[in-house]
User: Fold this.
Amino acid sequence: MSAPSPLEFAERLTDFELGEYRFRIRDYRVAFDVENDTAKILKVGHRKDMYK
Assistant:
């Protein structure tokens, strides 16, 4: 049995300036890119400040 892909729970962003994907964790967001099999976290913040 293989582990589920973390991208299964991520949303693809339309504004790639922040990153390619994001996770939602309650009121916080994590923007990240995926290169090869590595996730690179670019920004973590409260949702009210994340997209300013």
The first strand starts at residue 11 and ends at 12. The chain has a mean pLDDT of 88. The longest helix spans residues 47-50. Residues 6-46 form one domain.
